[in-house]
Specification:
Layout: H1 2-23, H2 35-59, H3 67-73
């Protein structure tokens, strides 16, 4: 059971990480210098991501399709 749960978690986390990095264009180094600024960047990106998902859920839109264009248009 533990192996199955770990495998499901790994798959979910990897999908999220890939989508998150693609949306916020951070496949390489983050565009900040210093630990505090990097933490702020990551926290801000997570906040914007969550607000976007909440908005799309409230509107009845697909949560996985069109996130990047939506964020770039805002």
């Amino acid at each position: 059971m533990r192996r199955v749960c770990h495998q499901l978690r790994s798959t979910a986390i990897e999908n999220f990480n890939g989508q998150f990095k693609g949306i916020f264009d951070v496949r390489g180094a983050v565009p900040t210098k210093g630990l505090t600024n990097t933490r702020r960047f990551a926290l801000g990106a997570v906040l914007v991501y969550q607000l976007t998902l909440w908005h799309r859920h409230e509107q009845g839109l697909d949560l996985r399709v069109g996130l990047a264009p939506f964020l770039k248009a805002a």
